[in-house]
Amino acid sequence: MDISVRIKEKSTKNTIENFGNNRYLVYLQSGLNEPGMWNELVSMLSRKFGVHPNKVELRRDMGADKVFMIG
Questions:
Q1: What is the predicted pLDDT for the residue at 33?
Q2: Which is nearest to 61 in space by CA: 41, 35, 40?
């Protein structure tokens, strides 16, 4: 399944909001270019969809907008 993700960086907490049609808004405490951001994002998505982190694959990267393949 492909999902579209928009990242809001430097939030007060890590959360994921669903906007329907496989679109999600992900609030991250870290910034887009900080060292732990990628692990934080993959960890959140894997927990949300109940898959192992290596099953979360980046398909397209457009800065704050990303498309992932889950599963």
A1: 87
A2: 41
Query: Quick one: average pLDDT of 24-29?
Result: 96
- Residue 66: how many CB atoms within 10 A of its CB? 19
CA distance 62 to 12: 23
Q: Residue 10 region, left (φ>0) first, then alpha (ψ -120 to 50), else beta?
A: left
- 53-60 long-range contacts, CB within 8 A, separation 24+: 59/2
Instruction: Report the C-alpha gap between 18 and 27 in whole angstroms.
Output: 12
Identify the pLDDT of residue 21. Answer: 93
pTM of the model: 0.90
